[in-house]
TrEMBL record:
Stored Gene3D superfamilies: lambda repressor-like DNA-binding domains (1.10.260.40)
Species, as recorded: Hymenobacter cellulosilyticus
Name the UniProt record assigns to this protein: Helix-turn-helix transcriptional regulator
Residue ranges occupied by any HTH cro/C1-type domain in the UniProt entry: 13-62
PROSITE patterns found in the cross-reference section: HTH_CROC1 (PS50943)
Superkingdom of source: Bacteria
Matching CDD domains: HTH_XRE
One Pfam family of this chain: HTH_26
């Protein structure tokens, strides 16, 4: 079940750099880059809430679920 991180989209919409967001949220640029690249395995709700507050968005603006086509086959429930 792939989760797509659209952080780059929201940063572009807000005309904000990754380093500016990192400073505003008090998270390292390295950790924010991992999240942006989609390589993060988890995110704390407090971090997600802080990002949403700074970017003035909702979690659904940042995270998207795209079902794996294999998961959609009949009989794989």
């Amino acid at each position: 079940m792939p989760i797509i991180v659209n952080l780059d989209v929201m940063l572009a919409r807000r005309k904000m750099s990754l380093s500016t967001l990192a400073a505003a949220v008090n998270i390292t640029l390295a950790n924010l880059s991992i999240l942006k690249s989609g390589k993060a395995k988890a995110i704390r709700f407090s971090t997600l809430a802080a990002i949403c507050q700074v970017l003035e968005c909702q979690p659904a603006d940042l995270l998207e679920h795209r079902p794996d086509p294999v998961d959609l086959r009949p009989g794989t429930e």
